[in-house]
What we know:
Layout: E1 2-7, H1 11-20, E2 26-31, E3 44-47, H2 49-55, E4 74-78, E5 83-88, E6 101-104, H3 105-114, E7 121-122, E8 127-133, E9 136-141, E10 146-149, E11 151-154, H4 161-166, E12 174-186, E13 198-203, E14 206-212, E15 219-227, H5 232-236, H6 244-253, H7 260-263, E16 267-276, E17 287-289, H8 304-320, H9 326-348, H10 353-366, H11 370-376, H12 378-381
Parallel strand pairs: 1-2, 1-11, 2-7, 4-13, 11-17
Antiparallel strand pairs: 3-6, 4-5, 8-9, 9-10, 12-15, 12-16, 13-14, 14-15
Helix pairs in contact: 1-3, 1-8, 2-8
Amino acid sequence: MKKIAIIGAGISGLFVANLFKENLDYQVNIYEKNTSINLDEGYGIQLSTNSIRLLNRIGFNTLENKDRFNPEKIDFYEINQEKKICDLNISEFNSENCKYTTLKRSKLVEFLKGRLKENIIKYDHNIQKIEKNDNQIILTFNEGAKVICDHLIISDGVFSKGKLLISNNEIKPTYNNSIAVRGSISRKQLNNLNKKNISLFMGQNFHYVIYPVNNNNESFNYIGVLNYKLTTNELDNYGLFKENSFIQDIKSKLQNQTSSNILDNLNNIKCFPVFVSKGYLKTGANISLIGDAFFAFPPSFAQGASQSIESGYELFNDIENNKNEFYNNRVVKVRMINNRSKLNHFAFHLSNPIIIFFRNIILKFLTKNKFFLASYLGKIYKN
């Protein structure tokens, strides 16, 4: 029986563990640095059909409808005018049991964790050293605990310690000169929006997205991305982003970019500096990166969670069938999505009125052009 060690109990790590647990040829354990998994985080995520199709393999389609939502379209707005420009029908990529889904991240994590035996996750295991000995991998955790495995899967996020260890501290994420603003807002504060759709507002150096996260349809997720430069000292002080003075400063910069009705009624506001990957790390035999540890995208294409799931499935398939094709295939897909993410960020943050005018005309055309949508979205959503 081959032993698989997974570093990190996030979406990608939990998902790939669910896949391996069905194969009796493998013994799988997850090593998580925290003492528990936080299921209180209420912010939302979007899952396109490429990830729903894979999640359904482990029973996601049995998740109660009240805990998720299936939006029909993305409505595009210009922030200053709050006038709808056009809409994109994302439901065209749906099938009966595989639909574009929004939900709370905690609900997805709870589902993935709930399908695993409790003893699979080893808490309070902070990786300190990764060594290779012939075909085996030796892991050393805090307080000197050691684990020997045949395959190591590193899935500990954008600030991956496992990735740092195997790259000799050379591969680190880069600040993307933008701040993500997360929060939630009550349905009754959203006067003129179609509550069945995702609403995307484009402004000057800023965009934000609002969408429901369950079928109760009372609380909506808010995520905004603001172009924002930080000094080296500010980046080194991660506690800064939790300080009320910093959050209020960010809110003041959004006063002309978000309607007062929305901005004044946001709940549980949190700010995060956006870090992204700039390159790829080709690991040695039997060591693999998945999810944000493999590559972290700018949050402008809503593929972070979906690609965490997709990369987990690709690696599972690669190991189970002894293919050794995972890295090359993943790089091709990641490049495609990263380019789309950067293009979206650019288009959503335009400031020149003339360019914005032409962007809106082009957007109206492209959102109804089936050939464009089949290429731009279809190549991603249909995996």
